Amino acid sequence: MFNKKLLSRSTLTALFCTAALAAGSAAVSAETIKLGFLGPLSGGSAYEGEGARNGFLLAIKQANESGDYPYTVEPVVLDDASDPTVGASAALKFVNERNAVAATGHWNSPVALATIPIFNRNKMPFIVWGAISPKITEANYPEVTRVVPTSEMENQPLADWAVKDMGWKRFSIISDTSDYGTSNTQAFTNYIVENGGEIISTDSFPVGTTDFRSALSKIKSEKPDAIYFGGVVTEAALVRSQMYDQDMSDLPMLGISGIFDEKLVEITKDKGDGIIASVQKVKENPNLAAFEEDYKAEDYSTPAGTYAKYSYDATNILLETIKNVGYKDKEKLAQAIRDIEYDGAVGLTSFDENGQTQLIIDATRYIVKDGQWQEID
Q1: How wide is the angle at C-alpha 43 spanned by C-alphas 302 and 141, nearest 5°?
Q2: pTM for this structure?
Q3: Superfamily, domain 29-149+283-361
């Protein structure tokens, strides 16, 4: 034990200052912030949500293990079940978390449209990693940005290919009545007409519809060159299965990334062949290769799929802007996100005046053949 009498006042002051500084440094290094992930982790779209969740967790793990990130980042993962009501509840739960800073979320457009007003009201930055309705960024909430292309951007290459490369001119449309289905129907129609094609019929049904046989019987008599489906996996699988039951298996069925899922093949079993999906294609680049290697090394049970890389970049954009400008001034943070040029797995991401990515994408087309998705040359 030391003798206090042997220590001068200046020595004691120095010791106490050193101890205080050390305690302060420990407090700073231990400061925890929370980032949120919202996506479908149950139900028919869980496959897409799980891959995106893994991309989110990978980005946070790398930041925490980097040794130079100024905060400890705690991930908060919430299931939106591809349901607007569930999604809104999840968003409210996250914004009320202590130390919640920002979030990324949603594969389903109606869910995103239900939650973005919540993030706006709470002045909390939110980056969409999967939902593609144009209305999401047309709302132009300062807190909301999106790293994926819109339905407009996805439908154009599919319509161009169908008319110009395949020579199809007459199309029937089946869609759901959600904003996602409506926006896809409108976009595909516009581009088909611009290319000199014709939409000969349009039928729409509520999400959850299971019987499309009456509409298919009518479409069969109209003799289109192809059917475009403007919805997502479960209903797409049912439509295709019922096409087989009505001797319409030779008729191509088209859609965009919303139907590109292993779940569709699982549901259709031996009746899925002939479904064509056009999926946004990211150009090969070193960051994408590094992401794919790191994702594989984690040995996740779910493959990365289409959206893990978008979620990964969205999370890294949040991490980088928080590192650069801090997290307490949410308005400043949201503006820093809008102003960023981020070179990530999907390429160089920057945002327009509405918060929509300006990344130029191409498309890859896949067809279900022999019970599995295969790329079309």
Answers
A1: 90
A2: 0.81
A3: Response regulator (3.40.50.2300)
